[in-house]
Amino acid sequence: MAGVRKVSSSISCFICDSRNWTDSNCHDPFHPAMSKYAENCKVPKQNHIGVFPARFCVKVIGRKISTGEDLVIRACSLESMDNQCGNFKFEGEIYKMQQLQFYIVDAFVDPDKPFSGNPAAVVLLDNDDDIDDSTKQNIAGQFNLSETVFVSKLNRDQNGSRSLMIRWFTPTNEVELCGHATIAASYVLFERERSVRTLVYETKFGQRLECTMDGERRLNLNFPSNDPVQIECKQYRWIDQLVHAIIGELPMIDTSIVNIYWSESTKKLLLRMESKDGQLMLTNLKPDFHRLKEIDTDGMVRGVIITQKADRQRDGVHFWSRYFSPWNGINEDPVTGSSFTVLAPYWRKQLNENGTLYAKQVSSRSGLVRCTTMDNRVSIEGFARIFCLGTCHVYE
Asked: Catalytic site residue 232?
């Protein structure tokens, strides 16, 4: 976080406060020289007697609830105050904090390929209601990534597990499940506190998810399995329209589509293409996204998976895939964790393979996923890396 410095003993900080830019130096992190410099800061600690060595220099941004007056405070602190949302009192007045730390994390990366995987924005909150849902949606729209994930209510049990609330937003709407954003959030949390072994998430939609990290720092998500069922073009008039919008002209469709499956629980349609020309047939697809979005599927489809069998010995993976979801504001998602809750049970049956399946989503960024089906659950594994972190200012 910009403006935060941590050391093991008492530190020295610039301290100031400014209302409505009365002290411009207090606002500017690059020119704080006019502020007061406090050496060897010591601060009180809640429910304790005396003062204690400060560990952080912090900058707090807020707005007075009664008048809308802007406030900036630079101070010594015992806490980093990474999550600066919610109300606080300063000199007898109530202010609302308006500063949030965020991370951009690439999930399901290929360890050997820079700038691979699917980027997600991660925002950590003390409480889910620190910012309202419309603000969450606006933040997601501002990031304009396929997903922005908000995590809150961090509580640890006696076994070292941590329970959290997790919510996912595309640039246009909230969604019920997102694998890559969950991987991204989990990576941040594991990096922040290495002693935590397991993360348990509760969702707004009643799901319970679990994430662990192994010794190689590979993250493992445990999701409900979403087994698809086979359907035929003649069952629904919109299937032909949708396939044409993705694949192209009819002669190619006749020779390239092996079968069509649909997952009711995820509203994902799965199209399997013929295994020829390596992955070129799949990577060369250029869907008509405007046409796709206009097709009326009676609410049955919110995303389309295109998949193809690979040669495990030659290609190193069992299958390839791509994922399109213009209905959720995402023309093509680089790597889609939730799609593998459909793909894993599908390919397990198609390949008669009960072990671990290796997959590659062949978007322009590409990403690697390892998945295993267990009863009615799917284990989805992959690596992640933090691309950047910073601070966003929230004005509600």
From this structure: no
